[in-house]
Design goal:
It is a single chain. The chain is an all-alpha fold and about 160 residues long. The protein contains nine helices and no strands. It has helices at about 5-10, 15-25, 30-35, 40, 45-55, 60-65, 90-105, 110-125, 140-155. Helix 5 (about 45-55) crosses helix 7 (about 90-105).
Length: about 160
């Protein structure tokens, strides 16, 4: 049995990433496969982003998080959920940010800088970063990550020449 320094994984983001990667069996080989898909998956990112937003907008429990101002967005805000559509400037801004994230997932080195980036992405969906009025409940984050995971796996599994 391996010892896990639980105090450290709760305070050191790199140690947490290393623990989680080992726990789920995420290896350098997995990262290499992810990187090998970048030339094919990269151009599909806009479609995946659109699918994520269509899914988020199909439930009031998730759509409500798109009304408050996102950190970094300086433009016009929607007045409420009923006046928020997929073409709103704040949604276009958020789509751009999600597109950057998904592109990084398939292109970035999985190093300390990347671990800090994905930690920041997580934090901006809580009161620990970004807008203090946005605190996406874990159930919705898990649902979205499951949706994105399924969409990415379906895309990658449909590619020729990618190890399964």
């Amino acid at each position: 049995m391996q010892h896990v320094d639980t105090a450290k994984i709760n305070t050191d983001i790199v140690a947490r990433y290393q623990y989680l990667a080992e726990f789920i069996g995420f290896t350098k080989e997995d990262i290499d496969v992810i990187h090998s898909t970048a030339p094919i998956v990269g151009p599909l990112v806009p479609s995946l982003v659109d699918a994520v937003y269509v899914k988020n907008f199909s439930f009031d429990a998730t759509k409500k998080y798109f009304v408050p101002r996102q950190a970094g967005y300086e433009g016009e805000l929607p007045t409420d959920m009923e006046h928020l559509d997929l073409n709103h400037p704040q949604i276009k801004f958020r789509k751009m940010m999600l597109g950057r994230y998904l592109t990084k997932v398939v292109t970035a080195e999985y190093d300390e800088k990347f671990v800090e980036y994905i930690d920041w992405v997580g934090k901006i969906h809580t009161t620990k970063g970004g807008n203090s009025r946005i605190n996406v409940e874990l159930v919705h984050m898990n649902a979205l990550m499951g949706f994105v995971n399924d969409a990415l796996l379906a895309t990658v599994n449909g590619l020729e020449g990618v190890p399964q």
